[in-house]
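Design review, sub-item: ligand-bound model
Attendees: FS, YL, KQ
YL presented the inputs for the adenosine-5'-diphosphate complex:
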Amino acid sequence: MKILMVSSEAIPFAKTGGLSDMVTALSLSLAKLGHEVKIVLPRYYSIDRGTQQLVPGAMGVPMGGGEEWSAVYTAPLPGSKEKNPVQVYFIDHEIYFGRDGIYGVPSEPDFIDNPRRFSFFCRAVFQLCRKISWFPDVLHAHDWPAAMAPVYLKFAERVSGSLGGFEKTASVFTIHNLGYQGIYSKDNFDYTGLGWDVFYNAGFEDAGMLNLLKAGLYSADKLNTVSPNYAEETKTQAHGFRLDGVLRYRSADYTGILNGIDTGIWNPMKDKYISAHFSAKNMAGKAKVKEELQKEFGLPQDSSAPLVGMVTRLTGQKGVGELFGPTYGSAWAICREMNLQMVLLGSGEAWCENEVLSLASRLSNFKAVIGFDEKLSHLIEAGSDFFLMPSRYEPCGLNQMYSLAYGTLPIVRRTGGFVDTIENYNEATGGGTGFMFDNLSPVSIYNTVGWAVWAWYNCREHIEAMRTRAMKLDFSWEKSAAKYVELYDDARTAVFGKTGNSGSGTAASDIFS
Ligand code: ADP
Ligand code: GLC
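KQ shared the predicted structure:
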């Protein structure tokens, strides 16, 4: 199959969170299965210019105000095989992407022209395909910045009278985070170049505003999210962020597929960022990495103290309010009252960065680095004994899978992808792979960290058994990539009827004209 990934992030080019890891890892796995995969990204300023090649000739993109011009650059995705490389294309637009920041900068966290930036990006995707004469069987769009792509496909490209080429392209849309929807003033709609009938028919309208994600959810042929449990949760009012009704409406086309992890990068036996390696059979290296981690953060090199690690975006989704909230967060009590060490790497909301730094200055057993640091994130995953993620909601969560792979036991709220990846500790049998709580409150976090620390000091044999069990779990991408292939097939069948693998079904123009 020919698959085009439309995303605002993909490692190593642009990353703010797990979306970036997922898009790259899935693309590489699909290529390994023999599929032809291309990724399209905006050409942000932060992307290294050195390795990119210009695709000759400017490209016109028809937007509401008239045609706009873009250049296109390309580079192979690092890690892909020469035999079947995943090619990445970068859409260049100096005004939209020639600046610092992916979605914003600290002084303007959500750029005011984001609806324009990402509409332009999604519209350019189709012109790119024409430019390189390559038309995908499946267009796979990720999260709200790419949500306009399935809309353009359905309402501007797969219709009679369009320039053609996409008659046999089906779309799949993946929700990585329902909390971010791309809601803007509807004054931005004219710029998309779509008619106002589409504003209503595609479901853009949201209480008088323009909701990009919502339109993507209505327009894509198939939808999924990144864990089976989150797929169920999002159909409820409690987790649906006001779009649960849309997801229930589309439930026949909506599934959950658990993310995998890139075991080439996140692997305790060959991780390039740590000084000693280890496996379920030989854990000696983990003790060394713990020492390295303690040294790095200036903590006493004490092997007997349980070390709790965190690597996180410092934002409400991650439960940081309950942990670090001034006056009521439980981090202070946890560190003061328990015999443990704690380290944090993260960045995000200013109030939280400040609280974390203030706490670190007052506590000797809590250390923090504010920033984004790939190497340090590996050191924390590998060297910690426990990994704390008290998320309010978690569509999948990659960090808990990384920590399980390194024998670092997660302490989490029973929500989203955690339910699909972690089994709660059972004191009677020593079973489980982590520690879970239900209600998100400072007290629950305090109690559950306390529970893990209690097990550390009193039932060490349970901890060792849980570690071995965790490290034996298989989160590799192969299984999940195969499920995406099924979903792609389903999407094509849903739109074009039974096609086999060659895309020889009813032309979409017959259906949509
Ligand atoms: P989310 O995408 O919601 O932030 P995930 O657990 O799916 O949560 O993925 C987060 C990814 O981002 C992981 O790869 C994690 O290691 C990485 N990450 C988050 N914050 C940082 C940071 N400050 N430095 C380095 N990596 C980070
Ligand atoms: C989002 C979610 C996270 C998920 C990631 C990759 O950022 O918050 O839970 O793991 O996307 O799919």
